[in-house]
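User: I'm curious whether this sequence folds into something compact or stays loose and floppy. Could you predict its structure so I can see for myself?
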Amino acid sequence: MTVADGRTNGLAIWRSVLPVAALVVVASVQVVLAKTASLTPWKGGGFGMFSTTDSADQRMLRVVVAAPERSEIIEITESLEDAAKRAAAFPVPRQLERLARLVVERERRHGRPVDTVQIECWRPEYDAVTLAASRRPVGELVYRAEPPAQTGP
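Assistant: Here's the prediction. I'll summarize afterward.
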């Protein structure tokens, strides 16, 4: 065996080991995030979709907008849909805050006052014996909006 053959064999081993190692790392990170940070098992490169109904589409977001003389649950509009799906799939403060900022911007664009936005994320859960459906909270944020910028003198 020549030096060149040794390098070729070493390269062949890495070519076969590297994809397996990458798969193990991605799956491990996904499992950890699903268990510790409420990432839906359907996201993040894991294989949880084969064992659970906890997908972003099955999670429920409740968005409450409050201001003086106003407190209401708002619907997720088309302009908020992408941010809402991301927040539902991975309800960590950064994703929830992004959605809250977009809600504030949208409400103010439509001339509606906003002081706070409260976002709650709930996942489906089923009783092991009765299979009765319920929801469990997996993320919550109360976002205090900055006062709107003053225009004019």
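Summary: Residues 53-144 form one domain. The longest strand covers residues 133-144.
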